[in-house]
Amino acid sequence: MIRFLLLLSRQGKVRLAKWYTTVSQKERAQIIKQVSPLVLSRGPKLCNFIDWKDMKLVYRRYASLYFIVGVDQEDNELITMEVIHQFVEALDKYFGNVCELDLIFNFHKAYYILDELLLGGELQEPSKKVVIQMVEKQDMRQEEEKLHGVASQRSGGDRAPHDPRIARG
Predict the structure, then answer these.
(1) Residue 50: what are its φ and ψ, rounded to 5°?
(2) What are phi and psi of 69, to 5 degrees?
């Protein structure tokens, strides 16, 4: 099972963190503090798997971002690498050649894509196409809500009956 997924910049800044096990804020900060230099200091020709404490760290670098996943000891590293790759491809497909700034300014979308892909630390949907379709449906729902909200504002539909701006006659 996946315990956590971290996205780090080359400078060690956390761009996305998702935890699938119960861990206190203090422990999370400690894990990030210990894992970041461990992964960032490794050479590009070294193995992408690290035995660390009671788990394995599986990481992969894409452009300026490191995708780091903490998994149970008995989990398959290659499947975990494939999960990382699926996430990156889904991000690429949604954002169109994703970059670090996309994740900074649209972090909620990145979390939504991750939530469509993984559930409770396990792969939920292996199809990138289905994941992107679900995210696009969510985008359409949000747009409809915005349009509906604007229309109800113009018609006064959002005002409460006790609103002093409503003329009583």
Answers:
(1) -130, 125
(2) -125, 130
Contact (CB, 8 A) for 3 and 20: yes
Q: What is the pTM of this model?
A: 0.84
DSSP label at residue 168:
P
Residue 90 · residue 117 · CB < 8 Å: yes
Grouping H, G, I as helix, E, B as strand and the rest as coil, residue 99 is coil
Q: How many other C-beta atoms are found inside a 10 Å radius of the C-beta of residue 89?
A: 14
Nearest to 122 by CA among 72, 73, 68, 47: 72
For the chain, report the end-to-end CA distance as a whole number of angstroms: 64
The sign of the CA dihedral 5, 11, 15, 21 is: positive
The tens-digit pLDDT sequence of the chain (169 residues) is 999 999 999 999 999 999 999 999 999 999 999 999 999 999 989 999 999 999 999 999 998 999 999 999 999 999 999 999 999 999 999 999 899 999 999 999 999 999 999 999 999 998 999 999 999 999 999 999 988 876 666 665 555 555 555 555 4
Phi, psi (rounded to 5 degrees) for 79: -65, -40
Cβ neighbours of residue 40 under 8 Å, at least 6 residues apart?
8, 10, 12, 66
The Cα–Cα gap between 97 and 93 comes to 7
Task: Please answer whether residues 57 and 68 qualify as being in contact, where contact means their C-beta atoms are separated by less than 8 angstroms.
Answer: yes
